[in-house]
Structures are given as C-alpha cells and as structure tokens.
Amino acid sequence: MPVDHFVANNGVMTKPSFTATNLSSVFPQQPFDFSSSATITTWTNKDSVGTFQILDVHDSAFSTPLTFGTFSTSMEKILPDLLTEAATADSITVDYKLWISTND
Please, what's the largest Cα pairwise distance for the chain? Predict the structure, then answer.
C-alpha cells in the first residue's frame, strides 16, 4: 500500500498474531508468555532511518496455557506507531520479532 494511502486511512492495519501448540504429552498444560518488538525503517529520498519500538511485554504466563495437541492463536495487543513514522516517508518496512518463553 502506498504510504500516502496508509496515512489517509489513519494507519489501519490488522494486529499481528501467532499460533502455537504444546507438543509434550508429559506436561499437557504448558504455561507461557511472550514479548514482541518492531524495527521500523522509513525511506525518504533513498535515505533510511530506523527506529525500535517495544510492543507487548508479558511478565507472567497467560491464564490459558498451551494444551497438548491443540493450536492456540494469540494476537498482539499493541501495534507499532507507523503514522508518526510515515508522515514524511516514501516507504516503510516493519520487522516484527516475537519471543516466547515457557519457563522450561
């Protein structure tokens, strides 16, 4: 999507999500937590500027653990702020990183 169209639509985008499952029948209910970040690179007249944003940080396990053999989908709660970055940019790239901890 062209940056000007993105800005004109107030930066509407879907929240990233991930799907995970527990592969251990020994521990059929596996608590976990996750954290995520985004590195945003804006391009203006062939010059690039990168910024880093922490998105979701969870310090304790979800109330619903991963169940053996069942796929569970979790969605990010916080989106990166792209509208601020897009104000003068020709194009933008977003690199998401996700860390999952099972406290094993």
Answer: 56
Buried b (16+ CB within 10 A) or exposed e, 18-49: eebebeeeeeeebbbbbebbbebebeeeeeee
Beta strand residue intervals within the chain, DSSP E? 17-20, 29-30, 33-44, 47-57, 66-67, 72-75, 91-101
pTM over 0.70: no
At 6, give phi and psi (nearest 5°).
Answer: -60, -45
Rounded to 5 degrees, φ, ψ at 85 are -70, -30
pLDDT band at 66 (very low <50, low <70, confident <90, very high): confident
Euclidean distance between CA atoms 101 and 23, whole angstroms? 15
Alpha carbon 94 to its chain centroid, in Å, reads: 10
User: If DSSP codes are grouped into helix, strand and coil, which group holds residue 52?
Assistant: strand
CA 91 – CA 41 distance, rounded (Å): 8
Give the pLDDT confidence score for residue 8 in this predicted structure: 72
